[in-house]
């Protein structure tokens, strides 16, 4: 359809203002008469509210409105509605909101918080998944049976918020074969904080009987629908608009503080601004969850994986949130990468009295890839096979089955491994090492996918020859909205990308969208935008064919003109055609909608899953070389290489930027970023002083190779490229450190004390006694049986 | 009475409480929202401004200490509407992603480039340790600084 190529290194239009400090993010927005809000948060992990009296606070200077659980009747969640806006009678985590206040100044609002009279009677606490799964453990949600089930099929019970299972083939038979080795591995990872630079922030107004919420989010439609549900109003009463967002990484893929501001705006009749403090962000940020993982495989001496079994425990914190959905991912992250015979997996979201966890770039995949790749190296070591040879023989290829019985198309991972070999071989030979450090290298593979889901787009053709793209997409920094989408529209209409205006998200103006995340923007919003632009193109070509007196099929659109193919300079400008069309028939516009049709799983293979199989698989191969200081335990990364499957690279330079950034964020996860929880239930890392993210001195340039041509249903053959770069980093570093030290790496991050303990054999082998030895004993309900 | 200071060449007066962090005075009194209060601990550098020519996290400076000082924020660095050399290089290198850290990055790198035109790659990395970026992995930023240094 397109005459002009959509592939280019188009620079960002939003850069100049960002560099001048002119861009107005949500935290920069001030409205006349605006009030400032603050939220009272619990300072115990578990308790019963015996008294809540706001009358004294209401008399404090400047206070205009106070809201509590009584103002927000609804419950939200994914799969099950277990989450109220404010703690309602019961506190389930340290930091849980109890009340919110709007006042003339922020200082007044904060002072008034201290005047709320609240008494809390302590209740028993479960802070770890081991505690939560113990016999007779106190229940975080004693009334879990009464919650509304939003999606049927997941097993639940006690502190198990959700359980998703996969069973394909007979694992017991595979494990009983006489010709196999049984390899068992256990892993544990901590929580990771997104540290998006813009905290979650909102300015809400109540206008003409409707809420208007300006917010820093990745999911405007989720904010609209979830806010309405919590407040008990029709979703049509909520309008959400989104200014430029100062970083997301999944943190802003869920409802946050928007309903507090909305309620206070309605109660006060004034606009209300609410911005999380950095400490609130650090303590309640919807972290990447901590997880405990056990994998067992039955592998023949020749390297065939005939059976695999795994148990994954995902800590969802006090409410199910995103983890309920993410239990689905284990099937594709632990069951991906390699051809498997029989397989059975259980992935469980576990309630604890800790801050809720959420989505974070390549959620679930980052730690399961770490576990799978370390396990793979342990398999290779056991059967005496080179780990690269083992991978090359076993990676998923054309017509191979995934864990859920999905049939993969095309050989992708194999050729990507070959390409990595070539990159590695072409690198300069490392200098001779005589500094006493231990050196190691590893290559790790990873399988991820693009969330597809519904998206909508409208393209309005303007009489001046520009086009306006209207979607619910948000620019969170990745460039998808500022580069990829205008390139797609421009390529279809023969315009310069600068002539495609990108409208900021507004749920009153654009159709439904799942949100910006999961690598889906270029795919889903891109497909909808392409379709909308194609409708505009068809309409313009029809009008132009009358003006130029040529058949539409003989015309091309390029460089702002509609011309007869092969006759540059003929025809008319697009502006002239658009003007004529507007006069004759009215303004020209086109609409587009897209969603994935879904890929079926093998019947009966999955239970409790939100999707059965993956619409757009994405693969990555990472290779790194490390040096480990035996005196300090410090790990230095000496080289890092990435071969990433991108389908088709619309903007290679933008993708390179995503890969460099994602790898560095992954190095933080692999080497030093870890959120821990104290015995009081409070997150220990409350600021930048205590949570260390990578600095300019920590990084190295990543050598990047984009692998194009793998099958994709994405527009123009694209796949999402921003999610995947972090996927394999923990795996690659862990395998390299294991190779360097000869020690069994079972936990991330590999901080100097942890590495030193490994080197000195002071790190005991990881034991996960709360994972039962028999797979079936880890289930609330046997796979496939009804509730 | 009030706190007077020179901001981007303009003589301005604030009635803020003298203990108010400078970043809040800039943003709330003067609507200069370029400086971002990200960590409020002086670690991230997103609120960096030049105070009498020295890069300083404005979250750590009480307004009273800025009294009488010459303050330059990111808004004052693009002279006559044109991006300065490091801003232009950051744009040319497509370094900007979410952009929240860039006002502070621009301040730090503008200072480095004007005071140390001989800076090396390692000098640039060291100079950026007070400016954290969560999106880019730094490489493009370092590349841009090298480009700006090499541009006559």
TrEMBL record, chain A:
Gene Ontology MF, one: oxidoreductase activity
Domain Aldehyde oxidase/xanthine dehydrogenase a/b hammerhead, first and last residues per copy: 20-124
Superkingdom field: Bacteria
Gene3D superfamilies assigned to the protein according to its UniProt record, in alphabetical order: Aldehyde oxidase/xanthine dehydrogenase, a/b hammerhead, Aldehyde oxidase/xanthine dehydrogenase, molybdopterin binding domain
SMART domains, alphabetized: Ald_Xan_dh_C
Pfam families: Ald_Xan_dh_C, MoCoBD_1, MoCoBD_2
InterPro entries: Ald_Oxase/Xan_DH_a/b, Ald_Oxase/Xan_DH_a/b_sf, Ald_Oxase/xanthine_DH-like, AldOxase/xan_DH_MoCoBD1, AldOxase/xan_DH_MoCoBD2, AldOxase/xan_DH_Mopterin-bd_sf
PANTHER family named in the record: XANTHINE DEHYDROGENASE, XANTHINE DEHYDROGENASE SUBUNIT D-RELATED
Protein name: Xanthine dehydrogenase family protein
Lineage: Bacteria, Pseudomonadati, Pseudomonadota, Alphaproteobacteria, Hyphomicrobiales
From TrEMBL, chain B:
Cited Pfam families: Fer2, Fer2_2
Gene Ontology MF annotations: 2 iron, 2 sulfur cluster binding; metal ion binding; oxidoreductase activity
Domain 2Fe-2S ferredoxin-type: 1-77
InterPro entries according to UniProt: 2Fe-2S-bd, 2Fe-2S-bd_dom_sf, 2Fe-2S_ferredoxin-like_sf, 2Fe-2S_ferredoxin-type, 2Fe2S_fd_BS, Beta-grasp_dom_sf, Diverse_Oxidoreductases
Keyword line: 2Fe-2S, Iron, Iron-sulfur, Metal-binding, Oxidoreductase
Protein name per its UniProtKB record: (2Fe-2S)-binding protein
Organism: Bradyrhizobium commune
